[in-house]
Amino acid sequence: MSGLKFAGQKCLVVGSGISGIGALTLLEHLGAEVILYDSSDKISEEEIRGKLPQGSPAVCIAGELPGEVEESIQIAVLSPGVPTDIPLVNRLRDRGVPILGEIELGYLAEKGRVVAITGTNGKTTTTTLVGEIMKAHLGTERTYVVGNIGNPYTLEVLKTGGDTVTVGEISSFQLETTDAFRPAVSAILNITPDHLNRHHTMEAYVAAKEAIAARQTKEDICVLNYDNEYTRAFADRCPAKVVFFSSGEEISNGYYLKGDQIVKSVDGRVTELLDIHRDMNLVGLCNVENVMAAIAIAEGMGVPIETILGVIKDFHAVEHRIEFVATKGGVDYYNDSKGTNPDAAIQGIKAMSKPTILIGGGYDKQSEYDEWIESFDGKVKWLVLIGQTREKIADCARAHGFTNIKFADTYDECLSLCTELAESGDAVLLSPACASWGMFPNYEERGRLFKEYVKGLK
After folding, report:
1. CA distance readout (Å), 344 to 157, 205, 370, 435
2. 186: burial class by Cβ within 10 Å (0-12, 13-18, 19+)?
3. What does DSSP assign to residue 433?
4. I need a labelling partner for 131 at 20 to 30 A (CA). Which of 114, 171, 177, 295 fits?
5. What is the block-wise mean pLDDT of the chain (458 residues), using blocks of 10 residues?
6. pTM of whole model > 0.90?
C-alpha cells in the first residue's frame, strides 16, 4: 500500500468528523478527487459542506451512497468510527479497492520518525507525557502529537521533516486499517476487554492492538507491560526489540517499581530514577505504569534521562483522567470521565484514599463489571448509576453483595444526588466504566459538565 498514488484518483472518505476532514485535506493536497460521505440520516449534505476547508472542491454526500458513485471509487479512507465489516466496505474490498484509515494515510506522507502508543488504558496520559518530553528535547516546532488524542495525523503530517518526531495515540479502531505503518518506537501499555461490540471477540481486539508492531523490525523498539498477560505473551512473537516495564515484579532488563522508586535494570544492574511520591504529581499505580512506559519510549528515542525526569517532575494529570477538580464542603471531587471501561475505572477507584461516592453507567460496550465491583474494596459508600447500563451494573453489584445503589434519570439529578450523599471527608468520583454515547457526544463533554457543576457549588 506504500506505493499508492493519490493524484487524479477518486477517493471516498467515509465519516465527516475531524478525522474525515483531516483525511480530505491531505488527499486534496496530494491531488486526489475527494468525495466526503456520511451515512448518518441526522446530518445534511449542506452541514457536511460547512465542515470543508475553504476552497475545497469535494463532493459531499449524506445518507445513501449512490451505486454509480460507489462503482467509481478507486481508494477509500475510513474514519476510526467506521467498522471495517459494514456492507459498503466489504463491497469495496471485494472489488479490490484499497481500504485505508486516517492514520495509515498520514503515515504515507510522513517524513520524520514516529512514536506510536496504544493500549486499553493510559494512552492519552502516556502520549501527552511523551509529547512533552520530545518537545523539551527537540523543541515544540519539531514535535507533533496526533491521533486518538483529538488532533488528526493528516492535519500535521505535511509539517514533518527529517528532524521531526510525531507522537501518536493510536486506538484499536485506527490500527485495523494500517498496513505500511511502522513506528520507530511503539508501545502497548496493556490489553483488557473493551470495544467487544466493535471487535466481536477478544482475539480480534488483541490482534488489532498488536498490529502497532506488525511492520517493525529488530531495528525498532516495542515497549510492553510485563504484568499484562496479553502483552507479555506478545513479546515472544513481536518483530521489534522488546523493552518491558513492570509495577509488580523485578525484571532483569527494563523498568520496574522497587518500593517507592522507579528503577532501570540492565542485566540486573539497577539505577534508581525517581521517587513516585516526591517526584510525580500523578496519582495511582496506573500512572506509575504510564510514567515507566514514557521513560522507556523516550530513552528508546534517544532522549537524555535528565530531560525525561525534568519533564515528569513538572507534569500534571491530563484532563478527564483522575483529575482533581475542587474541594467543596469538605468533599473532594475527581473527574475521571475518561474511565470509559471497567479496567480504566478500576484505576480510578484504586487512586481514591477517602470514602467515595461513585458515578457509573453509560453506553453498553458489552463489558462485564464484576472486577470493577470487586475493586470497590470497602471504599465506595454509594454507587450512583445513570445511562443504558445502569440496571446491568446494579444487578452485577447486588450479585457481589453491594447494595448501596441509587439511580438517576438525568445527569443533573445524578450530580445533585452525589452532593446530598457526600459528607465532609468523602470524595465524589466520576469514573463511569462506560462510554458516554447516548447521553453525551463524548467523554470530554461528560467531564466538562461535571467540572462546571462542581465549580458552581458553594
Report:
1. 31, 16, 13, 11
2. buried
3. S
4. 177
5. 82 94 96 95 91 95 96 95 91 97 96 97 93 98 92 96 97 92 98 71 92 98 97 97 97 97 96 96 90 98 98 90 92 94 88 94 91 94 97 97 97 96 97 93 95 94
6. no
